[in-house]
Amino acid sequence: MEATATVKEQRATEPAIPGLPPGPRMGRVPQTMIWARHAQWMLEQCRARFGSMFTLKIAYEGTWVVVSDPDDVKQIFTGDPKVFHAGEGNQILKPVLGENSVLILDEKPHMSQRKLLLPPFHGARMQGYEEKMTEIAAREIESWPTGTPYKLRPRMQAMTLEIILETVFGVHAGDERMDALRVALREILDLTTNPMALGPALLVGPDRLRRVPLFRRRIDRVDELIHREIAERQAAGDLEERDDILSMLVAARHEDGSPMSEAEMRDELLTLLVAGHETTATSLSWAMERLVRHPEKLERLREETLAGEEDYLTATIQETLRLRPVIVLVARRLTEPVEIGGYELPAGVTVTPCIHLMHRDPEIYPEPDRFLPERFLDNPPGTYTWIPFGGGVRRCLGASFAQFEMAVVLKELVKRHQIRPARPESERSLRRAITETPRHDAEVVLF
Ligand code: HEM
After folding, report:
1. Which CATH code is given to the segment(s) 60-446?
2. pLDDT, tens digit, for every residue of 105-132?
3. Are the C-beta atoms of residues 317 and 403 closer than 8 Å to each other?
4. Residue among 107, 396, 404 whose CB has most ligand 1 atoms within 8 A, to mutate
């Protein structure tokens, strides 16, 4: 591959940008092109060449200093949120998510939204969603065909969307409102996950994207439906009895006692849908893709599930998120100079704790390329060495929700079916917008 030669030709001794860690010396455009298609390969090549800290130049992202040493990552995750800005790097999502989204804010405004969103995602609350999640998973899985190759990823997506619509909005399957929301949201989610659809965002820039007619129409439609749900919930007299997230947001209060505005609620609801739907579906698809390549592990999972045990299930989910993290790195833009890993990094640079490289470090995970749920049975994942959900004050709000949901779906699936791979080789990764997905959509045969 031409790209291989180009990166290998770089000299590790000279920094590409004076004062910053070394990195490929090719220009921003070729780096961006390789990144867009072969992010994981590029990261591995760079680490082999330059070590645990290196510099990349990616279009629209500025200068990235990629970091994968656990001490450096800990320094970043526990650093002052005024210095390490995460929201700045997510501005491209602003036209869809809106200006109040927890994902695109920083500092005080970010903490204020995050605090409002935390209670519904508290680990203990998850039990309350179990029944609905199980019902949706069972119904979906029972509709799948047997004896023929079947792509799991699109169906996992349908299932996680249904689950999130139920738990977030409290609307039910078969309800006309659920159908309308599903269609409108699918169109918006396509805008955020389809690289072709994101093209216009990159061309016109996030601020002007809302003026593009197709985009405007889709956003207007989804806004209309979300505002209808909000208005209906605000008028409901039984908020305390409801356990959906929208009801909790309607009841939530800012520190000064004021309720969330409609715009805030709309932006956070959409944020939860966008952040929580595709990521979970893709992780579930990877779990099955890995399990079918290891029939003995799949069998152990089935046996323990039927016996009502969950340790191996938990370890399987942790190992899937280690070996196949759907997001390869997270970003923090520096607002002032900081010394990390012996480098004095200037303000304006973005440091990116690298999930992919950390999870493939043989010093942390012996035989890092092997799928070994057993490695987590006696050793729980470390806060700064197992980071599929990022970390610190920006750690994924839905981490417990996602792992709980994955457990429910995997249990329902392995209980019902014997599952074999539909293809002889392991599926490689395909990058879709920002997520790493199984190239053939986790194609399996169910029996
Ligand atoms: C396996 C599934 C998931 C993965 C791998 C994942 C991963 C991530 C990552 C890497 C981040 C950035 C963290 C950082 O910058 O340090 C994040 C943020 C976030 N995620 Fe998730 N996520 C998943 C599921 C969910 C779900 C189910 C929800 C909600 C329903 C959700 C809501 C959020 C929110 C709101 C943020 C922004 C937090 C903040 O900026 O304060 N995620 N997620």
Report:
1. 1.10.630.10
2. 999 999 999 999 998 898 788 888 999 9
3. yes
4. 396
